[in-house]
């Protein structure tokens, strides 16, 4: 018995939704597996921070604490005023540096993306050259500490990372992709350069601004090297440098300890410092994640 093409199509049609559902199920399982792999290290770190030092030494790391203990957090909370002050310094440096760097970097990148800007090529080469080569540690230290007199000030933690050449080139590339018709139509409506930049260009550049803001905030939040170079006042110690100092002190105590009972909880304190360090930045990820998938200028031009 021969079937007509329409009858064959009718027989094949019911199986297509099943295949689509099976494919969607496999996709969801794959995404769930990848998500579990990404979350697993964080769960292990939190579990280790809530475990006793003896259980970590004897049995190692696990998904759940074998012997529950908050000794690591109690050790870190031995000086709550210093820890709270370090949190405040790091938060101020991160917020101020991210917002200021984002503003200055975008103001520098936008003229470099305009083809009618006369000095576009020389300035682009200058930015690219500074991304490959820098002045070195000693000249930078001399400029910051002796020329600008920023030693033991919070600005020594902000200004060295305020403008990052890679961020400038990333913003310039994104600005260059903006349709010229939008800029020309805004200029025909009487928009000045600053009004065009703040009212048209920046709202259309939300995805790249969010990406750069995330990278810059991570750069400021995780940095402790600048504090090692320029900060001697304990009231200005950022969080990361304080945690590094605590871990170094624990290692020194354990090297001089005679017995296991007098040793400090080194492993659990390391994990607890990681939890304290990554806690606030997780909220930044969740806040900026929605901007990564946005289109550039969807619906901005009609016709």
UniProtKB/TrEMBL annotation:
User: In what residue span(s) does the ABC transmembrane type-1 domain sit?
Assistant: 87-282
Swiss-Prot/TrEMBL GO biological process terms: transmembrane transport
Q: Does the keyword Transport apply?
A: yes
The record's listing under InterPro entries reads: MetI-like (IPR000515), MetI-like_sf (IPR035906)
Superkingdom of this protein's organism: Bacteria
Name its cellular compartments. Cell membrane
Which ranges does the record mark as transmembrane?
25-50, 85-113, 125-148, 154-175, 196-218, 269-288
CDD domains, per database record: TM_PBP2
Listed A to Z, the keywords are:
Cell membrane, Membrane, Transmembrane, Transmembrane helix, Transport
- Topology of this chain in the membrane: Multi-pass membrane protein
Q: Which GO terms describe its cellular component?
A: plasma membrane
PANTHER family reported in the protein's UniProt record: ABC TRANSPORTER PERMEASE PROTEIN MG189-RELATED-RELATED, POLYGALACTURONAN_RHAMNOGALACTURONAN TRANSPORT SYSTEM PERMEASE PROTEIN YTCP
Q: Which family does it belong to?
A: Belongs to the binding-protein-dependent transport system permease family.
Name the chain's protein. Carbohydrate ABC transporter permease
